[in-house]
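Justification of resources, computational component.

The compute hours requested in this renewal are based largely on the per-chain cost of generating structure records like the one below. Each record pairs the submitted sequence with a full structure-token output. That output is archived, and it is also reused by downstream analysis tasks.
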Amino acid sequence: MDTLIKANNMKFPFNIYIGLQLAMPPGVNCYRVKHGDTLFSISKSFKVPLKVIIEANNIRPPYYIKQDDVIKIPPGVDYYIVQPGDTLWNIAQRYNTQVDVIRDANQISSPFLFTGEKLKIPYFLPLGSGKIVFTSLDNEKYSIRSFDFQVKEEKVLVSQFVNAGSIPYVSPDEKKLAFIGENNKVYIYNEETTELISLGQSTEYSTMNWSADSIKLVYVTPGNISIYNIQTKKITTIDQPDSSYPQWFPDGKELLFQSPDSSGIKQLYRIREDGSNKKQIGNNIWNFYNNVELSPDGSFILYTTPSASVSIIYTLEINTGKIHQVPSGPQGKDYYPKWSTDSTRIIYSSTNYRPGSFYSQINIAELQGRNYQTYAVSNCFSTPVSWLHDERIIYLSGCNTCLEENQANEMWLVDLRKPVPVPVVSGIKIIQLQVLS
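The structure output for this chain reads:
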């Protein structure tokens, strides 16, 4: 409901009336057939042409459907019927688009509109700077690609050694890209020279992190935390068996990581890059942490626990040890938390359920769990999410939930100042992503 309200710029008390035309933002697109349903009745209920539903579901004569079938409900034609007094400007304002976008979509040459005229209302991709780097699958081949908002251009960066688990880690100067590829090998791609080098073996599911000056890359190798220096081209190691989530503090001299204590319980630690001055942070008493991430200002740590089936997000204040729970979704399945660059908010994917399929809500909360709000909906069970300039957010959708597949083939953007989802990339399977400022 929140997304519907925002898509139509509705104000409290959100009154609607018979005949009012509403913009329908993208969301869950499946329907479970109930007793007595026919294709015709479903078509009338969703106001989608019968032919569109039949073609989307590849239904053949005699067009029979039965109770509990799950069918796709694709969007119909997005159009607006011009009302007396309407102008292109007020229609564009209402549906969060631009006059030129509506004019071009409808091939309008006259400045005048006519009452009763039907206008297509296309989704509009906001202009602005920024770049998205993501892992994709196209024609059964994995690659790492980028999308540049300034020029609206998508291109392939790396097509060798990439696999389904390859998460792109881009250096702060945006010149280098690290990933773990085939056979758990660490690779660094230099976008300026197009050189691709291998640093050897990592551990499965290891994460990586660049120092703020883009000179040092930290990752986990069997039995060690490893640090690669771009300038010296040397690797140094810190002996810390069974470590995970290594990352730099803002000063580039200390590391955060998770490792078992003497009793085997996973704890969070900080340590200098030469392996000295190791200190425990907090006191974990039972479960290990997932998705550990240090806030950009180095003051808080977020993590999820206890598992994948039940995943709750917490923040830990480093100086005081205080722990705060981030508001959880109704299923207790909260994934992919990411800090905003100013360290004040967290975005995450929260799984929910409606008859027929799971879907995910794109939520934002303040670092201590306050001011929780849903900004968008994805039809995937869960989705990676991220920030763009702290004013726009990116998430994935387009999963074939009718076939219970959680592989996205769409990337969406929401501007928090005018929160209507708009498509960015589509037509290929998208697996991992990183957003650059």
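The mean pLDDT is 86. The chain has five helices and 31 strands.
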